[in-house]
Amino acid sequence: xxxxxxxxxxxxxxxxxxVHRPLSPHLQVYRWQISMVLSIMHRFSGIxxxxxALVLVWWLVAAATSPxxxxxxxxxxxxxxxxxxxxxxxxxxxxxxxxxxxxLVWDAGYGxxxxxxxxTGWVVVVATFAFTLLVWIVGLAVK
Length: 143
Hints:
By secondary structure, the chain is mainly α. The chain is built from 5 helices and 2 strands. It is about 75% helix and about 5% strand. β1 and β2 form a beta hairpin. The relative contact order is 0.09. The mean pLDDT is about 90.
């Protein structure tokens, strides 16, 4: 065997003879690429958006309940932890939006060339942080 990975693809068939079976892709075989990271982050951003939606519901229910309940939620969201949650939610929102647009372009059959694939990945990352920063600068300035 030339490579230690060759030992992992040897198996026995039902008659007991040795056969090579395919090795499932995993992180020990493939090196990290922008597309892998963006795919994983797209799933995490979807989860973060769900958690953020729960915070939004909490805020809306508190607003409909009483001034005291609303004040408590406003106090939490105005704290350092609240700002971290809101900034994280904003990042997740913009990332999911821009990566979703990228996926729609792929669904139309464009952007599969390797240079385009990598460039659009980095565009998603840069646009996410640029728009998040812009929204927070404007939001805090208006406040």
